[in-house]
Amino acid sequence: MPTASRPLALFPFVGSTDSRARDRRPPPARGMKRVPRRREKGIALVIATIAITLLAIVLADMHESTSTSFALATTQRDRLRAEYMARSGVNLTRMLIANEPAIRQAVQPVYQQMLGGRRLPQLPIWSFANEILQPFCDYEAAQADRDNSGIDFSAAAGLGDTGGTCDIVSFAENSKLNLNNPLHLAGDPGRLNVAMQVFAMTGGYQAPSPFDPLFERRDGDGQITTRLDIISALVDWWDYDTQRTVFDPGATRVESNSGAEDNIYASFDDPYQVRNAPFDSLEELRLIRGVGDDFWATFVEPDPDDPTTRTITVYGSGKIHLNEARAEVLLARTCSIIPQQPLCTNPAEAAKFLQVINTARALAPIPWFSNVNDYVEFLRGGGTGMALRPMLEGLGLGEGILPAPVTIDPQQTQQMSQVFLTSAAIIFVQSTGRVGACDDTVPEEERGPGRCTSVRIRSVLNFDTPWTPPPPNAGQMPPLGIFHYWRMD
Question: What pTM did the predictor assign?
Answer without folding.
Answer: 0.78
